[in-house]
Amino acid sequence: MGKHVAKDDSQPPMLSAAALTIRQLFGLGQFEPARAQRDYQWEEPQWRALLNDLTAAFTNAGLDPDEGKGIEDDPNDKAPAGIGTTGEPIIAPLPSKRLGARQPLSCYYLGHMLLQPRQRVEGFYIYDGQQRLTTLTLMMCALRETPGGHEVWDTIQKTVRTPPPDNKPRLVNPTSGGALNHILKINGINARVASANFEAADRRMYKAARFFLANTQDWSPARWRAFTNFLLDRVYVTVTQAADRRLLEFAYVTINTRGKPLETKDIIKGHFSHLASRHGLTASNRMNEKWDQLERKTGNNLEQILRTAFLLDFRRKPDFDFAPQLMDHFEEDRSLPDAEDWVGRRLPRIAEMYSKLVAGVAGHDVLRGPQADLRRMTFLPWKHWQAIAFAFAERDAQAPLRFAKSIAGLTRWAFIVNLIDVDDDWILNIAVEAIAQIQEKRDPFEYRDHGRLRVSAKWRKRAIARLQDGQIADKYRRGAHVRWMETLYSPNDEIDFRPTEETSVEHVLPKRCGGQWLRDFPAEQHIYAEKFGNLCLLPKDVNGRLYDGQYQQKRPILLQLPQHYRSALDVAQSDAWTPAAVDARTQQLAERAAKALTLS
Asked: Confidence class of residue 198 from pLDDT cuts 50, 70 and 90?
C-alpha cells in the first residue's frame, strides 16, 4: 500500500496575482526589462490609442471638468454676410434620441503584467508589460512638464521616483543614449542632450514624451489634476509574479504568440450572435448570415462603418474600442427584432452611404461640387465628419442643392477645426450635437439657434492667427492642411486631385539641414522648416530622392514635374530659397486659405 504524502501548505505558490492601481504598481519598487524583452517599440498609433482610451474612460466616468467646452459661446458673434446659414427656418427641437446609458464605468483596465522579483533588491524584472509601463512613465513626465505641471508635480515625482534620499527612477530602461533617464529629469523632455549615441528606442521615447506633451499642454489646470488622479487611482493592471524565470519566459511566449487577436468587428459579431442564440439556433444562424452578408459587402471598411453608424444612430461618442458601448446598447432589454433590423437593414444602408460618399469619391482625378468637398475631407486625420455628412445625406435626399451647400459648410468648418487644433474629444462632442440638430430639422450652421457647426468670432481669429503664423504642430493635421491647400490651385468648378495621390509632404528646407542651408537660414531653421510656405507635395519616389539636398539640387527636379504638381512648381519659381522666400509664400498661402475659408 502506497505511503500517503500530506499536502505541504508551507511552500509558497509558484504564481501569485493581484489587481493593482497604477499608483500601487509603481509603489512596488523598481522595474527593469528582462533580457527576453524587446527594446521600446511603440509608435504614434499606440501612443494615440492609449491616450484616447484613457481620456475617453476618464470622461465617461464623469470626472472630466472640461467636458462639453468644445465651442465658445460668444455673445458678440454675428453671422457674416452669406455665411453660416442654409436659409432654413428655425424649428423647435424635437426630443433627442440619445441612448439611455447604463451607469458609467468608474475605472479602466490596462491589462496584465508578468514580473519576477529581483534578489537582494526591492524591484522586479518585467517579462510582459514593459511597453505599457514605459509609455505610462513618459506620459506622466509629459503631464509634469505641461504649463500646469505644478498642479501634479509632487504627485508624479512620488510615482516615478523612489522615496528620498535615493530618489531613483522607478523604471530603469537601459539604452545607449539613456533617453529615459534624461526625460525623467525636471524639464527633461525639451532639454538639449547629445544624441550621437541614440538608438531607435531612445528616439521613440523622446517622440512619445513630446507627443503626450503636445496633446495635453492645452488642458486646464483642473483637468491635469483630475486626469492624473484618475490615471493613478482608477486605472488597473493585473500583476502576476513568479520567482522561476523559466515559467515567466514560457508564459510570455504563450501570451504573445498563441491564438489570433480579435478585431472589434469580430467582438461585435460575437455579441450579436450570442444575443440571437437566446432565441434558439435558427435565430443565431439568421443573425450570423446577416452579419456575413454585411461583411462581404463592406470588406475592410466595416469597422469604420460601425463606428460611424454608432455615432450617427445613437448620438454617443464612440470610444477608441467602442465594442463594449455597442454591446451595452443591445443588452438583454433590447428585443431581437431591433438587433436584426439594425444589422440586416440599417447597417447596409449606412454602408451604401459610405460607399457613395467616402469610398466612392476616391480614385477620381477630377471632381467638382459636393464630391470634391467630400474628397477633401478624406484628407483629415479624424473621421467624425463622416457621420455628420451622412446625416445631411439622409435629410437632403430629395434636395441636392441643399446637400451641396451643407457639405460645403461642413468642409469649411472641418478645415478650420483642423487648422486650430481643436481637441479630438471636443470635435466628437460637437459632432454628436450637430447630428442631433440635423436629425431634429434644425440648422447646425445657424448662429441664432446656437448651431454646433457655426464658427465663432474667437475661432475665426485663432484660424487667421494660425495661418499667419504658418505652422501646425501635429504632422497628420499639417499633412491634411497641405493637401487641402493643393486643391486650392484648381478652379472651383474642376478640382484636380492627382497631386494629392501617392504623394508626401516635402520640406524644401529640410528639418535637419547643413551646408549651404545654414548660410541661407542662419537662425530659426526648425521654425522655417515647418512653415506652410516651406511645404509642398511631391510624388513619394521623388521626395525620397531629394531627401535633405540643397535647394540648387532640388529646384531642377521640381521644374521637371508634371504641371499638376502646382505647389512644387510654385516653390521652384524662386531662384533662391531663403527666409524671405518662405515668409512671402506663407503669406500668399495664408491669404488664399483665408479666402477659401471665408475668414477675411
From this structure: confident
Residue 103 three-state SS: coil
**Residues 452-492: tens digit of each pLDDT:** 999 999 999 999 999 999 988 888 999 999 999 999 999 98
Cell of 404: 451641396
- Cα→Cα distances 394→2, 191, 391, 430, 440, Å: 80, 53, 5, 19, 12
Categorize the per-residue pLDDT at 102 as very low, low, confident or very high, splitting at 50, 70 and 90.
low
Q: Tens digit of pLDDT for each residue in 34-63? A: 877 788 999 988 998 899 889 988 988 889
Strand 123-128 relative to strand 30-33: parallel, antiparallel, unpaired? parallel
Task: List the grid coordinates of 251.
Answer: 508564459
Q: 108-117 and 235-241: which strand pairing? A: parallel
Sign of the dihedral defined by the CA atoms of residues 155, 156, 162, 165, in that order: negative
Residue type at 252? Y
CA 138, 141, 147, 150 torsion-angle sign: positive
User: Please, which residues have CB within 8 angstroms of residue 242's CB and are 6 or more apart in sequence?
Assistant: 14, 15, 16, 114, 115, 116, 248, 251
Q: d(Cα 321, Cα 105) in Å, to the nearest integer?
A: 14
Sequential DSSP letters for 283-328: HHHHHHHHHHHHHHHHGGGHHHHHHHHHHHHH--PPPSS-HHHHHH
- C-alpha cell, 265: 468587428
Q: How far apart are CA 486 and CA 502, in angstroms?
A: 14
Report how far apart, in Å, the C-alpha atoms of 65 and of each of 176, 218, 224, 349 are: 41, 14, 10, 38
Query: Which among 418, 412, 331, 342 has a CA at the least distance from the CA of 373?
Result: 412
CB atoms within 10 A of CB 371: 18
Can you give the residue ranges of every domain in the chain? 16-62+105-257, 264-357, 360-467, 470-596
